[in-house]
Structure formats: structure tokens, C-alpha cells
Amino acid sequence: MLKQVGKAEIRVDGPAKVTGRASYPQDLYMAGMLYGKTLRSSKPHAEITIDTTEAEGLKGVIKILTFKDVPHNHYGVLFKDHEVFCSKKVRSIGDPIAFVIATSEKIAHMAIEKIKIDYRELPGVFDAIEAMQSDAPKIHDKGNLIYHYKLRRGNVESAFDRAAAVAENTYRTSMVDHAFLQPEAGLAYLEGSQVVVCVATQYPHFDRQEISEALALPLDRIKVINPAVGGAFGGREDITLQIHLALAAILIGRPVKAVYSREESFAAHSKRHPMVMTYKTAADAEGKLIAMEASIVGDTGAYASWAINVIRKAGVHATGPYVIPNVKVDSYVVYTNNPFAGAMRGFGATQVPIAHEQQMDILAEKLRLDPIEFRLKNCFKPGDRTATGQLLHHSVPLVECIDKVSEWMNQNTGADGGAIE
Amino acid sequence: MKEISLRVNGEERSAEIHEEMRLLDLLRDALHLTGTKEGCGEGECGACTVIMEGKTVNSCMVMAFQAEGKEIITIEGMATKDKLHPIQRAFLEKGAVQCGFCIPGMVLSAKVLLDENPIPTRDEIREGISGNLCRCTGYNKIVDAIETAAGYLNTGGDSNA
Ligand code: FES
Ligand code: FES
């Protein structure tokens, strides 16, 4: 069983990928296939009415799908807060409103231009802190606050009173796109009593469930095939075109293909949560961290996706890899009218180092300590306990890592600033 | 509609094209050479790289009619029936392939680089693939692979070199 461990093996899909034989969804073609194109909202918050009459009259247009065609018009990983097609209102730019099925991509494009959307704009909110105010425009029926994670350990107030140095600052991170190299694409067709959807995805089993729920079809009527996936990084955890394609193939009975442009790809999938992080961190005269208080607000945009898990993870990792006896963390995640945020590499743990590491540098300066020494004094070692109470009794090779990095930094300080390839 | 002929991977090919067709569409939709990828459609990512008259081009930025009478090499033209090109082999051996979507373009850019400069430095390799984006590998292993491939090619491309 352990034949391969410790050996450099050639990956099984490698030969197909270096020769161009690997099939990504856009590489699939079928005889008689039709093309699908999505009409997306151009407004961040508005009530809508949709008129497809003129577009339907275009030669080569087979059908235009809207919310009226979807048996259960919703999906979503944690909450079913996305609509397959917006029915009454749009909540962010890029929300899908209609799906044109036509004999060519060009005709589908032309038909999109001919669909009339009457937008009655609503006040929007684009800042996570503003979205928490009681009078902020509501994105969904309930309030904008989705989740509040609390972490309490010791007593931060009394620790701040006896601190030798305190740093208090607010940090903001931006929205980030995965920009995987292969834009979303898919092909759906009927095979006996089943609808087959070929799509690059991180969760074929979950996609199948989402399609089944939205289309009110039993699971065994749906097959999801995951051909080669051109990168994902969390950005293929939510549904994009899966339900649209399945519905199109079922209603028309012919294969239907859709390929997103790079621009549409940006509009269609999740982003990394932007966060506003207010930190107060304190150390004693010996350079030991004694307290940290943090408030973290994440912007999940118009849909929750993995918001709860991401913001909980940000809260759990808020201290960074440091022993701090007194900790108070509140992390919140809220809806806004921004593009929705979800999973992206690190899942909430990527944003907090922007804050906790700058806090470490600022405190080291205040204490007149070398920033590396300051980190070594406070970082996790075997036998330590994290702020959430976890006892670290296995390997914690952080000291070795910091030592190695500082050794390399001291060796490689040439004209290029010590860049290590 | 217009019929054009061109040489693709050493073979004489002809295809019906229309005026809006890009070389990328000609290769993928008309000739079914889907190893050439579209990552952006605007000349930024290099996934659609092919070799035209010995030079790399972004096939999304070349119109199909411009390829009339030209000599084109796509990724499908790199390996022979039973043997990978040394560049392809080096990519596999060095772990330079992850999702693979950038790889056809990378391999073709590497070919032109090594045709013109058989012993490139690592910086020259980086320069040579600067028009090709990869979101997975972080590039280092791709640079390793091209360095290794240069070695193979300079010793005759033998698989045991
Ligand atoms: S698809 Fe041609 S450069 Fe990106
Ligand atoms: S291997 Fe995925 S983009 Fe390069």
C-alpha cells in the first residue's frame, strides 16, 4: 500500500495534460448541441421585471429560461439564499436573471441584448460596517448579520491595565478573485432517463444534490461528470452554470453547452471575504504577550456561501501562532450588495495575519525588541495551549522555521533585496 | 465564408472560415485541436499560445484569415505517436504540471525559447515564459522543467540523458 510514499511519481493525469489530450469542459463537443448564455444583473440592488418576448422572436433562439422554469428556485452551500434565476429582485451585479439557449453562441449573445429588464433601483449597502447598522438596507428578508463568533479567555481589561506596550489599529483586506486559468464551462445532455452534466467542479456529489433539489428530480436521474479541472482554489465550491445547463438539457432534450468569458467568470463565482479587523494587542516589559482584543467584520456580499465557516476560522486564528493568556475575539459576517464571497485558499485564516503580524512588528518597535526575537519569545511550542483551549502536544516546528528563515535572510541580502527563488 | 489552407503540425489543412473567426476558433472548433486553450480571450494569459512561422502568438489575438498559408504548430504537434517531446517529458518529471490549463501554452513557449537560445539562464527562461500565466505552480517547477529540457535537447534529446 505504501509503495508510492517517498518516491517521485509521475501524476496519472500528467501525460494527457502535457500533450493537450486532457478534456476540460470547454473541450467537449456533441453533434447537434446548442449554446447557452446567461443574462446577468447590471445593478447591485433593484426590483426587476423581465420581458423576453422580443428576444424569443429572434431566429435561432430555442428557449429563454427564467425563474418561471425552475421548480425550486434556490440553491446555496449553507443557506439556500441564491436564486437559480432572480425572480423579483437582484442583490448584486452579476446575479443571473435569464439563460438563452440558441443554435449558436452569436445568436445567444444577440438575444441577451434584446431581453428587456426593468430595474427599479433600491438603496444598496457596500460597506460591511454600514451593513450592520439597524437602518441599513436589507439584502434578504432577515437582517444583514449572518453570524457572530465569540472567543473569550481570561480577562483582557485587567491585562491591558498592566501592559508595558499596547498597539491598537484597524486593518482592512480587499476582495480577491481566484482567477483559476480555466473559465467556467459545461455541457449537459440526456442519456436515457438521466441528465448528464459535465462541469469542472470541486464537489460533483454536492452539485448533484443542488441540481436535484432545484429541479425537483430524484438524485438517480442526475449524473455529474467532472472532466479535467483547470484550477479552482475554492472558487468552484458554489454552483455557477450546473443547474442552468441541466434544466436546459431537460426542457429541450438536446445537448447544451456554455462557456464563460473571463469577465463573466469574475462575475459568476465567489471572492475571498474582505475583512475589517480592529486589534488591540498588549505585551509586558519582558516582551511577553499578555492580551489581545479583536473585532473582525467580514463582508460576504449578497450571498452567504461559506460565510459562517470562514468567519469562525478567522476568529479561531485571530491570535496568530502566539501564546496569549487573555483573549477576546468577536468576528461577524454580514450581507452587502457586493459580489458574494466564499471559499478561497485559507478560508478565513489568510486575512488575519495581515493584522496580527503588523501588530507584532509595531509592538516590537515600541518595546525596542528585535521583531524576530519577539516572535520567538511568544510563538507556539509543544505543550502550549491556544486561545481556543487546544493543547499542542504534537510537532510545532515554528521556532525551527523562524530560525531557518532568519538564517536565510541574513545570508541572502544581496542587491536584489535577498529574494529567494 | 471563405476557404483557406494552412499547414498545421506538418499537415496541409483547409477549413471554412468566416470573417470574425480567430485562429483560436479555427483550431478548436473547425480542426478540433482542443489542446489550445482560451483563458482570457484578450491576449493576457498565454493559454492560447501556438507557434506560427517559428514565433509564438496568442491565437486569440490572430484572426483566422491571417493564418492563410502559414505554418502552425500546436501542442498536438509536439509528441510523436509513441514518444513525448523532451520538453513534455521534463514537465512531467519535474512536477511542473498541476491543473494543466496553462501547460500547452507553456510547452510551446518553452520550445521557441529553446530553439532560439539552447542554453538559457533561469532569468532568460522566466523572460521566455513571461507571456504565459500559471495560477497553480508558482512557476519554479516550470523553470526547473525547462532547464532540464534544455539539457535533454543539448544531448540529443535521448530519454536517458
Ligand atoms: S486566451 Fe489568448 S492570451 Fe488568454
Ligand atoms: S498548472 Fe494550472 S494554471 Fe498552470
What does this molecule look like?
The complex is a heterodimer of chains A (421) and B (161). Chain A has 421 residues and is of the alpha+beta class. Chain A contains twelve helices and 15 strands. Chain A folds into two domains: 186 residues, Aldehyde Oxidoreductase, domain 3 (Alpha-Beta Complex), CATH 3.90.1170.50; 190 residues, Aldehyde Oxidoreductase, domain 4 (2-Layer Sandwich). Helices cover 26% and strands 24% of the residues of chain A. In chain B, helix 2 crosses helix 5. In chain B, a hairpin with a 2-residue loop joins strand 1 and strand 2. In chain B, strands 2-1-5-3-4 form a five-stranded mixed beta sheet, with helices on both faces. The model of chain B has no long low-confidence stretch (mean pLDDT 96). Chain B is an alpha+beta fold and 161 residues long. The chains are: A alpha+beta (421), B alpha+beta (161). At the A-B interface, helix 1 of A face helix 2 and helix 3 of B. The site of one FE2/S2 (inorganic) cluster (FES) has 12 residues of chain B, from loops.
Any chance you could write out the topology, listing elements then pairs?
The complex is a heterodimer of chains A (421) and B (161).
Chain A: H1 14-19, E1 34-40, E2 46-51, H2 53-56, E3 61-65, E4 89-90, E5 96-102, H3 105-114, E6 116-121, H4 128-131, E7 145-153, H5 156-161, E8 165-172, E9 185-191, E10 194-199, H6 204-215, E11 222-225, H7 242-252, E12 256-259, H8 262-268, E13 275-283, E14 289-299, H9 307-316, E15 326-334, H10 352-367, H11 371-378, H12 398-411
Parallel strand pairs in A: 1-12, 10-11, 14-15
Antiparallel strand pairs in A: 1-5, 2-4, 2-6, 3-5, 7-15, 8-13, 9-10, 9-12, 13-14
Helix pairs in contact in A: 6-7
Chain B: E1 2-8, E2 11-17, H1 23-30, E3 49-52, E4 55-58, E5 71-73, H2 86-93, H3 103-116, H4 122-128, H5 140-154
Parallel strand pairs in B: 1-5
Antiparallel strand pairs in B: 1-2, 3-4, 3-5
